[in-house]
Amino acid sequence: MTGERAGSRGAAVFESVRVGALTLHRVTRAEVVDAVFAALGRGEGGSIVTANLDFVQRAAESAELAELYGSATIRVADGMPVLWLARLGGASFPERVAGSDLVWQIAERAARDGRSIFLLGGEPGAAERASQVLRERFPGLRIAGVAAPQVASPPQLQEIAALREQISAARPDLVYCAFGTPKQEQLMAALAPAVPRAWWLGCGASLSFIGGQRRRAPAWMQRLGLEWLHRAAQEPQRLGGRYLLRNLPFLVRAAVGQRRAERP
Hints:
Number of helices: 12
Order of helices and strands: EEEHEHHEHHEHEHEHEHHHH
Radius of gyration: 18 Å
Largest sheet: 6 strands, parallel
Protein backbone atom coordinates (compact mmCIF):
# COMPACT_ATOMS: atom_id res chain seq x y z
CA MET A 1 0.00 0.00 0.00
CA THR A 2 2.32 2.71 -1.23
CA GLY A 3 1.70 6.26 -2.39
CA GLU A 4 1.95 7.12 -6.05
CA ARG A 5 0.68 9.66 -8.55
CA ALA A 6 -2.33 8.87 -10.66
CA GLY A 7 -4.82 10.64 -12.87
CA SER A 8 -7.20 9.97 -15.72
CA ARG A 9 -9.47 11.65 -18.22
CA GLY A 10 -11.81 14.22 -16.73
CA ALA A 11 -9.96 14.63 -13.43
CA ALA A 12 -7.00 16.41 -11.95
CA VAL A 13 -3.88 14.39 -11.27
CA PHE A 14 -4.27 13.12 -7.72
CA GLU A 15 -1.80 11.27 -5.56
CA SER A 16 -3.00 7.74 -4.91
CA VAL A 17 -2.63 4.91 -2.44
CA ARG A 18 -2.66 1.19 -3.10
CA VAL A 19 -5.10 -0.65 -0.83
CA GLY A 20 -5.11 -4.34 -1.68
CA ALA A 21 -5.95 -4.69 -5.36
CA LEU A 22 -7.31 -1.15 -5.63
CA THR A 23 -5.59 2.17 -6.26
CA LEU A 24 -7.54 4.94 -4.53
CA HIS A 25 -7.04 8.68 -4.79
CA ARG A 26 -5.87 10.85 -1.89
CA VAL A 27 -8.53 13.54 -2.12
CA THR A 28 -10.90 15.52 0.04
CA ARG A 29 -14.61 15.82 -0.67
CA ALA A 30 -14.09 19.41 -1.77
CA GLU A 31 -11.39 18.37 -4.23
CA VAL A 32 -13.65 15.72 -5.74
CA VAL A 33 -16.47 18.21 -6.24
CA ASP A 34 -14.12 20.79 -7.76
CA ALA A 35 -12.62 18.20 -10.13
CA VAL A 36 -16.04 17.01 -11.29
CA PHE A 37 -17.39 20.46 -12.06
CA ALA A 38 -14.17 21.61 -13.69
CA ALA A 39 -14.41 18.59 -16.00
CA LEU A 40 -18.07 19.33 -16.73
CA GLY A 41 -17.03 22.83 -17.69
CA ARG A 42 -14.61 21.33 -20.22
CA GLY A 43 -17.27 19.00 -21.58
CA GLU A 44 -15.56 15.92 -20.13
CA GLY A 45 -17.48 13.13 -18.41
CA GLY A 46 -16.27 10.59 -15.89
CA SER A 47 -17.19 8.37 -12.98
CA ILE A 48 -16.60 8.08 -9.25
CA VAL A 49 -16.21 4.82 -7.33
CA THR A 50 -16.73 5.10 -3.58
CA ALA A 51 -14.74 2.15 -2.27
CA ASN A 52 -15.49 0.71 1.15
CA LEU A 53 -14.16 -2.54 2.61
CA ASP A 54 -16.58 -4.61 0.54
CA PHE A 55 -15.07 -3.14 -2.65
CA VAL A 56 -11.56 -3.97 -1.43
CA GLN A 57 -12.56 -7.55 -0.70
CA ARG A 58 -14.39 -8.01 -4.00
CA ALA A 59 -11.39 -6.62 -5.90
CA ALA A 60 -9.08 -9.02 -4.05
CA GLU A 61 -11.26 -11.96 -5.04
CA SER A 62 -12.01 -10.96 -8.65
CA ALA A 63 -9.57 -9.53 -11.18
CA GLU A 64 -12.57 -8.56 -13.32
CA LEU A 65 -14.03 -6.41 -10.54
CA ALA A 66 -10.63 -4.95 -9.70
CA GLU A 67 -10.38 -3.82 -13.32
CA LEU A 68 -13.96 -2.48 -13.29
CA TYR A 69 -13.38 -0.41 -10.16
CA GLY A 70 -9.99 0.70 -11.41
CA SER A 71 -11.49 2.07 -14.62
CA ALA A 72 -13.32 4.85 -12.74
CA THR A 73 -12.00 8.37 -13.18
CA ILE A 74 -11.92 9.09 -9.45
CA ARG A 75 -11.74 6.38 -6.78
CA VAL A 76 -12.22 7.48 -3.20
CA ALA A 77 -11.86 5.82 0.20
CA ASP A 78 -15.38 5.46 1.58
CA GLY A 79 -15.12 3.58 4.86
CA MET A 80 -12.92 3.84 7.91
CA PRO A 81 -11.54 0.28 7.53
CA VAL A 82 -10.07 1.34 4.17
CA LEU A 83 -8.29 4.22 5.89
CA TRP A 84 -7.03 1.83 8.59
CA LEU A 85 -5.59 -0.57 6.02
CA ALA A 86 -3.82 2.30 4.27
CA ARG A 87 -2.25 3.40 7.56
CA LEU A 88 -1.00 -0.10 8.23
CA GLY A 89 0.77 0.15 4.90
CA GLY A 90 2.43 3.42 5.85
CA ALA A 91 0.14 5.63 3.74
CA SER A 92 -2.85 7.80 4.55
CA PHE A 93 -5.86 9.60 3.13
CA PRO A 94 -6.68 13.22 4.04
CA GLU A 95 -10.21 12.20 5.03
CA ARG A 96 -12.91 9.67 4.42
CA VAL A 97 -14.88 10.56 1.28
CA ALA A 98 -18.28 8.93 1.68
CA GLY A 99 -20.70 8.71 -1.21
CA SER A 100 -23.46 9.56 1.27
CA ASP A 101 -21.77 12.94 1.79
CA LEU A 102 -20.87 13.53 -1.85
CA VAL A 103 -24.50 13.27 -2.98
CA TRP A 104 -25.32 16.38 -0.94
CA GLN A 105 -22.24 18.38 -1.88
CA ILE A 106 -22.53 17.61 -5.58
CA ALA A 107 -26.24 18.48 -5.57
CA GLU A 108 -25.52 21.80 -3.84
CA ARG A 109 -22.89 22.67 -6.46
CA ALA A 110 -25.14 21.48 -9.30
CA ALA A 111 -27.92 23.83 -8.15
CA ARG A 112 -25.47 26.71 -8.02
CA ASP A 113 -23.97 25.94 -11.44
CA GLY A 114 -27.25 25.13 -13.21
CA ARG A 115 -26.40 21.45 -13.73
CA SER A 116 -28.92 18.60 -13.81
CA ILE A 117 -28.93 15.25 -11.98
CA PHE A 118 -30.59 11.96 -12.91
CA LEU A 119 -31.48 9.71 -9.95
CA LEU A 120 -31.12 6.05 -10.88
CA GLY A 121 -31.85 3.09 -8.63
CA GLY A 122 -32.58 2.79 -4.92
CA GLU A 123 -35.35 0.93 -3.14
CA PRO A 124 -38.96 1.54 -4.26
CA GLY A 125 -39.91 5.18 -3.80
CA ALA A 126 -36.44 6.29 -2.72
CA ALA A 127 -35.49 8.14 -5.91
CA GLU A 128 -38.79 10.02 -6.03
CA ARG A 129 -38.55 11.07 -2.42
CA ALA A 130 -34.86 11.97 -2.79
CA SER A 131 -35.79 14.16 -5.75
CA GLN A 132 -38.25 16.10 -3.60
CA VAL A 133 -35.83 16.48 -0.71
CA LEU A 134 -32.94 17.65 -2.89
CA ARG A 135 -35.07 20.25 -4.67
CA GLU A 136 -36.39 21.53 -1.35
CA ARG A 137 -32.88 21.73 0.09
CA PHE A 138 -31.31 23.30 -3.02
CA PRO A 139 -33.80 25.57 -4.81
CA GLY A 140 -33.20 25.66 -8.53
CA LEU A 141 -31.70 22.18 -8.69
CA ARG A 142 -32.75 20.46 -11.90
CA ILE A 143 -33.66 16.79 -11.66
CA ALA A 144 -33.31 15.43 -15.20
CA GLY A 145 -35.15 12.20 -14.43
CA VAL A 146 -35.87 9.45 -11.95
CA ALA A 147 -35.83 5.68 -12.50
CA ALA A 148 -35.73 2.72 -10.12
CA PRO A 149 -35.88 -0.38 -12.34
CA GLN A 150 -35.31 -3.96 -11.27
CA VAL A 151 -31.92 -4.87 -12.73
CA ALA A 152 -30.12 -8.21 -12.71
CA SER A 153 -26.49 -8.61 -11.66
CA PRO A 154 -24.79 -8.42 -14.05
CA PRO A 155 -27.30 -6.21 -15.93
CA GLN A 156 -28.85 -7.83 -18.99
CA LEU A 157 -28.65 -6.34 -22.48
CA GLN A 158 -32.36 -5.49 -22.64
CA GLU A 159 -32.18 -3.72 -19.28
CA ILE A 160 -29.18 -1.71 -20.40
CA ALA A 161 -30.86 -0.80 -23.69
CA ALA A 162 -34.00 0.50 -21.97
CA LEU A 163 -32.02 2.61 -19.51
CA ARG A 164 -29.70 3.89 -22.22
CA GLU A 165 -32.68 5.23 -24.17
CA GLN A 166 -34.19 6.89 -21.10
CA ILE A 167 -30.97 8.51 -19.91
CA SER A 168 -29.95 9.62 -23.41
CA ALA A 169 -33.28 11.42 -23.76
CA ALA A 170 -32.87 13.11 -20.36
CA ARG A 171 -29.31 14.33 -21.15
CA PRO A 172 -28.24 14.79 -17.52
CA ASP A 173 -25.00 16.37 -16.41
CA LEU A 174 -24.71 13.97 -13.47
CA VAL A 175 -26.15 10.57 -12.61
CA TYR A 176 -26.49 9.14 -9.11
CA CYS A 177 -26.40 5.37 -9.58
CA ALA A 178 -27.71 3.60 -6.47
CA PHE A 179 -27.77 -0.17 -6.88
CA GLY A 180 -24.97 -1.32 -4.58
CA THR A 181 -21.77 -2.88 -5.80
CA PRO A 182 -20.93 -4.34 -8.26
CA LYS A 183 -24.24 -3.78 -10.06
CA GLN A 184 -24.01 0.01 -10.01
CA GLU A 185 -20.46 0.00 -11.40
CA GLN A 186 -21.48 -2.48 -14.10
CA LEU A 187 -24.34 -0.20 -15.09
CA MET A 188 -22.16 2.89 -15.01
CA ALA A 189 -19.66 1.29 -17.38
CA ALA A 190 -22.42 0.12 -19.72
CA LEU A 191 -24.43 3.35 -19.77
CA ALA A 192 -21.74 6.03 -19.67
CA PRO A 193 -21.18 6.02 -23.46
CA ALA A 194 -24.81 7.11 -23.90
CA VAL A 195 -24.03 10.43 -22.18
CA PRO A 196 -20.26 10.83 -22.60
CA ARG A 197 -20.15 14.31 -21.06
CA ALA A 198 -21.95 13.29 -17.87
CA TRP A 199 -20.48 12.31 -14.51
CA TRP A 200 -21.58 9.16 -12.72
CA LEU A 201 -21.49 8.56 -8.98
CA GLY A 202 -21.98 5.09 -7.54
CA CYS A 203 -23.77 5.83 -4.30
CA GLY A 204 -25.27 2.62 -2.86
CA ALA A 205 -27.99 3.36 -0.29
CA SER A 206 -27.59 7.15 -0.51
CA LEU A 207 -30.97 7.81 -2.14
CA SER A 208 -32.65 6.02 0.75
CA PHE A 209 -30.63 8.12 3.20
CA ILE A 210 -31.67 11.33 1.42
CA GLY A 211 -35.31 10.31 1.27
CA GLY A 212 -35.43 9.17 4.89
CA GLN A 213 -36.21 5.49 4.29
CA ARG A 214 -32.88 4.64 5.95
CA ARG A 215 -30.94 6.51 8.59
CA ARG A 216 -27.18 6.96 8.56
CA ALA A 217 -25.21 6.07 11.64
CA PRO A 218 -24.59 8.84 14.18
CA ALA A 219 -21.44 10.86 13.62
CA TRP A 220 -19.62 9.19 16.52
CA MET A 221 -20.22 5.73 15.00
CA GLN A 222 -18.95 6.98 11.64
CA ARG A 223 -15.76 8.32 13.27
CA LEU A 224 -15.14 5.00 15.04
CA GLY A 225 -15.69 2.96 11.90
CA LEU A 226 -18.92 1.42 13.22
CA GLU A 227 -21.28 2.56 10.48
CA TRP A 228 -21.45 -1.05 9.26
CA LEU A 229 -22.91 -2.08 12.63
CA HIS A 230 -25.64 0.53 12.35
CA ARG A 231 -26.46 -0.61 8.82
CA ALA A 232 -26.51 -4.27 9.87
CA ALA A 233 -28.92 -3.47 12.69
CA GLN A 234 -31.29 -1.83 10.18
CA GLU A 235 -31.06 -4.63 7.59
CA PRO A 236 -29.92 -7.73 9.51
CA GLN A 237 -31.10 -10.30 6.96
CA ARG A 238 -29.44 -8.60 3.98
CA LEU A 239 -26.32 -7.13 5.58
CA GLY A 240 -25.68 -8.99 8.83
CA GLY A 241 -24.12 -12.02 7.20
CA ARG A 242 -22.10 -9.95 4.73
CA TYR A 243 -20.54 -7.77 7.37
CA LEU A 244 -20.00 -10.33 10.14
CA LEU A 245 -19.21 -13.47 8.16
CA ARG A 246 -17.57 -12.01 5.07
CA ASN A 247 -16.17 -8.48 5.48
CA LEU A 248 -15.00 -8.64 9.11
CA PRO A 249 -12.89 -11.82 8.70
CA PHE A 250 -11.40 -10.34 5.53
CA LEU A 251 -10.46 -7.15 7.39
CA VAL A 252 -8.66 -9.17 10.06
CA ARG A 253 -6.77 -11.23 7.47
CA ALA A 254 -5.87 -8.15 5.43
CA ALA A 255 -4.66 -6.27 8.50
CA VAL A 256 -2.52 -9.19 9.72
CA GLY A 257 -1.09 -9.76 6.25
CA GLN A 258 -0.25 -6.09 5.86
CA ARG A 259 1.52 -5.89 9.20
CA ARG A 260 3.62 -8.90 8.24
CA ALA A 261 4.41 -7.38 4.86
CA GLU A 262 5.57 -4.14 6.50
CA ARG A 263 8.05 -5.81 8.88
CA PRO A 264 11.71 -5.21 7.88
